[in-house]
Amino acid sequence: MIPFNKPYLTGKETFYIEDAVKTGKISGNGKYTQLCQDFFEKKYGFKKALLTTSCTDALEMCAILANIKEGDEVIIPSFTFVSTAIAFVRQGAKIVFADSCESNPNMDVAKLEALITSKTRAIVPVHYAGVACDMDKIMALAEKYNLLVIEDAAQAIDNYFISKNGEKKALGSIGHLAAFSFHETKNIIAGEGGLLAINDERFIHRAEIIWEKGTNRAEFFRGEVNKYGWVDTGSSFLPSEIIAAFLWAQIENLDAIQQKRLNLWNTYYDQLVNWSKSKNIKLIEVEPFSCNNAHMFYVVCESLEQRTALIKHLNQEGVHAVFHYISLHSSPYYNEKHDGRELVNSDAFTNRLLRLPLFYELEVEKVIQEVLKF
Ligand SMILES: *Cc1c(COP(=O)(O)O)cnc(C)c1O
C-alpha cells in the first residue's frame, strides 16, 4: 500500500537530538530553539519568531495577544482545520464563517466585507494547500476597519505572495501575526511543533511573556530586569530543545525537500491534465498571485459519488487517497452557533475534494498509473 503520508527524515535528526541531550540543556529556549528562530526571522523577514509546541498553540497565543473577549467576532473560512476556530472560541469569540472561493478553498475575499460588523476584531485567512490568499485585499480591508489579520499559515511554510506592486512577500510575514505547523504531515516536521511569527512589533514583548507561563523570564535572562515573576496570563507554549533539535535537521534540508516536493507536484499536474479533462475533474490551481510550496496535490471531482468511487478504486489498487475537512459550520460542535448562512463552495470542497499522496519518498509514477486507470 502506498500511504497517504510518510514523514521524511533527513538523517541528522538524532544527531542533533543527541547533541542537545549531551549539552544538558533540554528544556525550551536553548541553542536549537535560537537557531531555528533566527533562521525563520532572517529567511522570511518576521520581526520575531517563537517556536511553539504546535500550530494550534501558536493560534491560541494569537487569540490571547489579540485580546479576543466574549462577544468579539472573528472571521475564518469554514473549510479549515478545527484549530483555526478553536483558538478563538476558547477566548469566547463568535466565529463568523467565510465561504470558500469557487475555484479554491481559500476564503472568498470578494464577499468578506459583507461579514464585517462593529464587533469584528480579526480576520484569519488560511492558505489552504499552501496557496496564498489575496493578502493585498485582506490587508486593505483590515486597515479600513481597523482589524487584526492572523494568518493560519500551517501549510504555507516557504511560500510567497506576489503583491500588486510586484513585491514578493513570504506567507506569514504579511498579517500582524501568523502561525505555522511542523506536524508530521507538513513540509518540514518536528513530530508535533509550530511557530508564532510576529510582524507587528507591538506584540513582541507580551508574546515572550505569554510564551513562558506569564513570566518575564526572557527579560531576566537578557539581564534587563533583576528578578522575574508572574506578570501576565500565559501558558507553557514553548517546545523542548529535543523538538527544536529535530526541526533544525529539517531546516538544514529545506531547499532539497521543497525542490523534491515541487518535482512530484509538477509530475502529477503534467500527467493528469488530460485525464482530468476527460473525467470532468479539476486539478488544484495555484492563483497567479501565489508561488507554490507543493504542500498538497488535490483534485476536485464532479460529484460526491465520483469521489467515493475514485477513493475506492485507488484503495483497491493499493493507493491511500483521502478527502479533507468537513465544513466547520456544519460540525456537531458549532452547527447550532452558526448563523445559518449557506456556504456552498465550502460544502462543495467538503464533498468533492480528494488529496493524493505527496511526500519526499513517494513513487509518484505508480500513483499516476492507478489514477489513469479510473
Ligand atoms: C495542520 C493544521 C493546523 C494544526 O497544526 P498543529 O501543528 O497540528 O496544531 C491548523 N490549521 C491548518 C490549516 C492546518 O493544516
TrEMBL record:
Which Pfam families does the record match to this protein? DegT_DnrJ_EryC1 (PF01041)
Protein name as annotated:
Probable aminotransferase
Record's Gene3D superfamilies?
Type I PLP-dependent aspartate aminotransferase-like (Major domain)
Q: Name one GO biological process term.
A: polysaccharide biosynthetic process
The answer to whether UniProt assigns keyword Transferase to this entry is yes
User: Which residues are the active-site ones?
Assistant: K186 (proton acceptor)
Entry's Gene Ontology molecular function annotations:
dTDP-4-amino-4,6-dideoxygalactose transaminase activity; pyridoxal phosphate binding
Q: Tell me which UniProt keywords the record has, alphabetically.
A: Aminotransferase, Pyridoxal phosphate, Transferase
Record family assignment:
Belongs to the DegT/DnrJ/EryC1 family.
